[in-house]
């Protein structure tokens, strides 16, 4: 496994003679010329094997198991614990809100991480620790007695937020890890085929994880003789076991080399390939993930007494000496914190607006597509339970309407299981053939069109469980392209930032993927805040699916502005 993606140690380096100093290559019809280092045939690295890609994406499957369990069980768990609908919406919106503003920074940090574990694995490990702690907290919190209701409610709320945040934030370094390992198959060479295989396996492992997650929910484990408490505790316990296995497979399989910024200073802000800037295993020195960032900051601002971002001081004295401040400085610090929190939405808008036009167009299409996918995945169980089975979420426990609602949630989970199976099969066996036939742009539009049609069918045939399951299965095609093609495009852009961005100094692939991931978080925030109130006012759960259908159509329209090949570039898109 370890030898499936390595550079031959006996490779011969280029000489510094003029004839061997570089190969002049052109992209986009010769409009953009730049130098590639000359390499000999023995410098070529083997493409990662499918087995290796499955291993490094095992953590992704584990994260998707946690996400599926969270979206299916947590709303019911919170309501049964005494949370109102409004309080539940607030709790569910906290984690995506935090992720929206922290994950892009995490992506920049991981791009410059110099840990001995590599750039991505330290962040996967850190988020995994939080995720495991949250699962333990949710499992134990349900066992607390009613006399400790305040502690129980607080433990569940904190556990939900940590589980939701860690399972979503950990996706970014996992995606960047795949991009790092698949961005090039030879020094100075490009291979989109390797990227397509890498993210196809990534999408397939997401779907496999979703299948396992929804299977945990759909099966009656007590009848199978497996019980770790109530059904929620059993699901969380099994999720913890499965994720731990997946996590260790990835951590032991992904042999990242430590990042060495001294080998290429430009890699601190730009990532053109995966090999430059990496130290050999023998030369690597252990250091913390933030060492290189701190060195660069200190060298560029030696004369500054403090470093501030948005008015917030970051020097040690300002952060850790608050107790020695005068009372008026306490107030000033609180006002600055409030100001920065209020400034976050504007800061996020400015961040997205400042990205290259090519990446911004992809972000908008990806945002609309995630609105469609998440509106379906988040609320499909409620739709089936209320519309098809006639259940009521606020019915007294043990009543007929309560039993109908629980049965509807279980059957909705089977529909989402079919959705995940189709996504996995399509990603692994069909999507490449469709892409070869229609091109990357045609494949992307086809998947979104199938998603929109399946959502329309879900609304039209809402009285038939058979047709609903067929539509649920077809919707997996849309999920497959949404989790695959945008990441392929980002990796393609970063193989030639000068061509696609018009500059080689814009951030690394981790930061770019984090921008796309923020659309995933933003879709959850907006849907959590709006959809519940919309359905409560109208009394029609159909709006969940209608929004999903319309979002898919909007994504198809916006995809016309996305750059899928160099031929799609215009002068303005490179500014």
Quick tags:
575 residues; mainly alpha; 18 helices; 4 strands; globular
Structural account:
With 575 residues, the chain is mainly α. It is built from 18 helices and four strands. Strands 1-2 form a two-stranded antiparallel sheet. The chain has a two-stranded antiparallel ribbon with strand order 3-4. It is globular. The N terminus is likely disordered.
What is this entry, summarized?
By secondary structure, the protein is mainly alpha-helical. The chain has 18 helices and 4 strands. The longest helix has 61 residues, at 400-460.
Name the overall outline. Answer: globular
Number of strands: 4
Euclidean distance between termini CA atoms: 42 Å
Topology as H/E string? EEHHHHHHHHHEEHHHHHHHHH
The major beta sheet can be summarized as: 2 strands, antiparallel
Average pLDDT, rounded to a whole number, is: 76
Radius of gyration over C-alpha positions, nearest whole angstrom: 25 Å
Walk across the major sheet and give the strand order.
1-2
Figure out the total of helices. Answer: 18
- Please identify the structural class as seen in this structure: mainly alpha
Helix content: 55-70%
Quaternary state of this entry equals single chain
Q: Which residues sit in consecutive blocks of at least 5 with pLDDT less than 50?
A: 1-44, 184-191, 266-325
- How much of the polypeptide forms β-strand, as a percent range? under 5%
